[in-house]
Design a protein that fits this description.
The protein has 292 residues and is α/β, with parallel strands linked by helices. The protein has two domains: 85 residues, 3-Layer(aba) Sandwich (Rossmann fold), CATH 3.40.50.10860; 134 residues, NAD(P)-binding Rossmann-like Domain (Rossmann fold, 3-Layer(aba) Sandwich), CATH 3.40.50.720. It is built from ten helices and eleven strands. The strands form three sheets. Strands 1-11-8-7-5-6 form a six-stranded parallel sheet. The chain has a three-stranded parallel sheet with strand order 3-2-4, sandwiched between helices. Strands 9-10 form a two-stranded antiparallel sheet. A hairpin with a 7-residue loop joins β9 and β10. The longest helix is centred in the N-terminal third of the chain and has 21 residues. Bound molecules: guanine. The site of guanine has 6 residues, from β4. Guanine binds next to β4.
Length: 292
Amino acid sequence: MVIIDGKATAAAIKAEIAAQVKDIVASGGRPPHLGAILVGHDGGSETYVHNKVLACEACGFRSTLIRLEDDITEGELLDKIHELNADDEVDGFIVQLPLPAHINERRIIEAIDYRKDVDGFHPINIGRMALGMPSFISATPKGIYTLMQRYGIETSGKKCVILGRSNIVGQPMAQLMMQKKMGDATVTVCHSHSANIKEECLQADIIIAAIGRPQFLTADMVKPGAVVIDVGTTRVADASRPKGFRLSGDVDFEHVAPLCSAITPVPGGVGPMTICMLMLNTLAAARHEYFK
Ligand code: GUN
């Protein structure tokens, strides 16, 4: 059984990105530049954005963090987005989610120039990905796909079950796994209305668990030799930890791992890959790789 090391893979990819940025700068170009808009002071969002800024530094990117108060109007936020869309010095930018309730998230995402949408959340990027066209692919599915590739996990012709149908993970993951010359797998998506989830999982060569329910996938649901990817990162109370909680995945790792040919741990599996994929998307934006 192989434990897939997302932390080491992400570190290796970041070093590769940094080397490419050095080459760009050595040949007279400017480093890639990521913008991040953070609205309000949500603790989780502050941490995510801080880590994105640190990853930019590690990769040799420039970053600009734009902090806005949570009483900002939707119109004011749209103005800021239009400013970044028009700024030739900014290659790509993100608006950290969630946004305050009075702001329409969908309207905000649609206002981002899809050529700068390094989160891959804009409908044009999602549509292009579904059609197999070059596009920004959102970080978590791209990170999972990259991990499987780097570990030589065969996906072509395999039966893949995805648990969860969220816009950010389940749906784009299903697209990638079924895509020609990408996953080339036979894909089943299970969700809250699915019948026979256990039977579906038992047939799967690859299970990707992204439902946000701690320890949902148990050993009696997994075929021996399967590959299991755990996207869950739910905080559960744990008085023995300094922060008073630990991260729990969607997989009962202790009992599932011995059955698997390969499995991702939580933490240290999918999580570290996501910011690294945002860096790859920003590099691609700077190089105008997808949209000439
Ligand atoms: N909130 C949680 N995950 C993400 C992400 O990947 N991008 C943005 N913009 N906000 C998030």
